[in-house]
Design brief:
Elements (H helix, E strand, L loop, with lengths): L14 E2 L3 E7 L2 E6 L2 H9 L4 E6 L5 E7 L2 H13 L18 H4 L15
Antiparallel strand pairs: 1-2, 2-3, 3-5, 4-5
Length: about 120
């Protein structure tokens, strides 16, 4: 994915890859297209987005419109491709480490058990 934007990026020049790409149809407006439902959910949750295209012929496809520059879209796509947690998604339950049955049964040396252990 091309994330560095040169000083003279023209209109309708796309950046990105198959999963996420962006282009500027007119100055000050950026369209970001995704084929990933998780990225589409994240963009739909944003207050500054507007769904402009939805397609299913040949696979999942949604295109969102944002006010901004192509460099802003490049930073957004980089953040979405490196971060796998959706916006406002819950953090989930804590994962406790596995221990031996003797410690959980109280026969081991450990006396305090984490709150997530079931007794």
């Amino acid at each position: 994915m091309k994330t560095l934007i040169g000083g003279m990026t023209g209109l309708n020049e796309a950046i990105g890859g198959h999963e996420l790409c962006a282009w500027q149809p007119v100055r000050g407006v950026v369209w970001v297209q995704t084929r990933n439902p998780k990225h589409a959910r994240r963009m739909a949750q944003r207050g500054d987005s507007r769904l402009v295209v939805r397609g299913v012929a040949g696979g999942y496809l949604k295109t969102f419109e944002f006010r901004g520059a192509l460099a802003w879209a490049a930073r957004l796509m980089k953040r979405y491709l490196t971060d796998k947690t959706a916006t406002n998604e819950g953090l989930g339950r804590a994962i406790c480490p596995r221990t031996s049955r003797a410690i959980r049964a109280g026969r081991g040396q450990r006396t305090d058990a984490p709150a997530c252990w079931e007794t």
